Amino acid sequence: MAVSRWKAVGSTLLAMFLVGLVALLAVLFIRTYTWPNEVGRWNSNETVIIELTEKERKQLVEALKGAIRIPTVSFSEEEQNTTALREFGEYIQKVFPQVFSSVLIHHEVLGGYSHLFKVQGTDLSLLPYMLLAHIDVVPAPPESWEVPPFSGEERDGYVYGRGTLDDKNSVIGILQALEFLLKRGHKPQRSFYIGLGHDEEVSGHKGALKIVEKLQSQGVQLAFVLDEGLAVLDGVIQGIRQPVALIGTTEKGSITLDLTVNRSPGHSSMPPSETSIGILAAAVSRLEQNAMPNMFGEGPEQDMFERLSTKFDFPLNIIMANLWLFSPILSRILERSPSTNAIVRTTTALTIFKSGIKSNVIPPTATATVNFRLHPAQTVQEVLDIMQNTIKDERVEISVLNSFDPLPVSPNDMSLGYQILQHTIHNVFSRAPVAPGVCVGNTDSRHFVNLTNNIYRFSPVVLKKEDVDRIHGLNERISKDAFELLVQFYIQLIQNADTDKILPPHLNTHEL
Ligand SMILES: N[C@@H](Cc1ccccc1)C(=O)O
Ligand SMILES: CCCCCC(=O)O
Ligand SMILES: [Zn+2]
Ligand SMILES: [Zn+2]
After folding, report:
1. ipTM of predicted complex
2. Ligand with an atom nearest the CA of residue 442
3. In this structure, what DSSP letter does residue 52 have?
4. What is the pLDDT averaged over residues 333-337?
């Protein structure tokens, strides 16, 4: 009797488990394959595709090469190649005569080497927008470069050099697009600004901030700002094989700080049990070994993965459409690669370590510089508190050099700026799925928060994983075709920006 009762109970439990499993699988598959993708819409008025002549196609590449050859390097806030910055200002005047002579355009230099253009539109009822880019570049030690970093040399269809992806491609691309449009007698309806900062790589305090102060003094409000940042990423996000266009609707915060240990110097023949180097090395090693908490799901990154869920290969597509269940698994997967780990947490980068004065002298001081990039769900103070708790050594002094909280999240879908961007991306990048994302690097656009809520970080270029590694790295390059497409993007954008209709996104279950 007892055995048969247990058998009955067992088979009932098994039946309940199987029914539950089938129900769960049904929910997972239904959500995966009927995921309501909100698809942005745009005005049907297709923009005019500008056919460039052969001469113009060569001209735009030469314009970029000339810009790369001018070494506008920023070493620190105090140290920049101002000779090159001045030369760059003269260069663009020479290469873009229509821009600098048009009665529609007012140009001025701010902060010594930054440029602000105002392009007057015909419809003063339309709020102006801002196209931002930066002239300065990070240093490029020539060792290990296949091509000298400031030669602008062309190899196998690519233009090589520091700034070809970050950010002279956009500086020259924006001006070249405007030059071609003016040449064809184009008159924009919506006014717009072009802001070219000269110290973005070392904070933007002398360039972009001066542009903001000027516009604020004139009471200017902007419809939207477009700056560098994310791009059309091809194979960068694990599990998505096709190119996806990510528009940075926010950017991480940042803390740059020095950790210093001071100890009495002495003869190396009678060393103490721990020197300043040993104490500091142990402290920064603890920081590196104890990553900041995984914040996946507490910022806009979840929205990005859910919107792209149908683009992931099986079984990731099921995971992405069911983050209510699989979020812990996904956050572990994303930690594996630096580019996606930077999306799920505040990152800790040990970037400079200095100590020692002579091989037989106990070092009096050791200093390390650490750069944190903050996840949107954390504040500067929270990260500093966690860091203190991790270091746990009062001999390590902390001095914050600069810091700022994560930026506000700009609206998408029901935002004019986002829709204009999405429309232009579909025009030029043949319907690459578009989604909002977090820009893990920082940009000059962070200074514009009081001029608009609609700040977008997007460079119109397709980047593979190997391209992302070239930014601030070795052998930075852009293909001639990609640069021509970038110029076309800005030509289209300037035309698309003449609309003023925000269209409600329509739900669409098959195409993002
Ligand atoms: N854009 C560069 C330089 C920068 C750092 C911090 C703030 C603003 C700009 C970066 O993200 O590293
Ligand atoms: C491609 C992302 C760029 C981040 C800002 C910079 O390094 O200029
Ligand atoms: Zn940049
Ligand atoms: Zn940069």
Report:
1. 0.94
2. 1
3. P
4. 89
Given a cut of 70, whether residue 43 has pLDDT beyond it is no
* Banded pLDDT at 38 (limits 50, 70, 90): very low
Give the lowest-confidence range in 35-44, 136-145, 155-164, 442-451: 35-44
Residue 91 Cα to ligand 4 midpoint, Å, equals 21
What single letter denotes the amino acid at residue 216? Answer: Q
Residue 312: its pLDDT value, please? 86
Establish whether residue 444 lines the binding site of ligand 1, counting it when its CB lies within 6 angstroms of any ligand atom. Answer: no
Task: Decide if 501 contacts 269 (C-beta within 8 A).
Answer: no
Looking at 36-160, which runs of residues are DSSP E strands?
37-39, 105-110, 114-119, 129-134, 154-155, 158-160
Ligand 2 site, residue 74, Cβ cutoff 6 A: no
Q: Does residue 267 have a pLDDT over 90?
A: yes
Look at phi and psi of residue 83 and say left if phi exceeds 0, alpha if psi is from -120 to 50, else beta.
alpha
Residue 50 to residue 57: CA distance in whole angstroms: 12
Average model confidence (pLDDT) across the chain: 93
The residues near 86 (Cβ < 8 Å, ≥ 6 apart) are 113
Residue count of the chain: 512
**Atom 2 in ligand 1: residue holding the nearest Cα:** 201
Residue 459 CA to ligand 2 center (angstroms) comes to 10
CB of 441 shorter than 6 A to ligand 1: yes
Closest ligand 2 atom, CA of 459? 1
Torsions phi, psi for 142 (to 5 deg)? -65, -20
Which residue from 254, 402, 440, 445 has its CB within 8 A of the most atoms of ligand 1, so it is best to mutate? Answer: 254
| Structure token pair of residue 494 | 């300037």
Residues with catalytic roles:
136, 200
Show the beta-strand stretches assigned E in 299-396.
Answer: 347-355, 361-362, 365-374
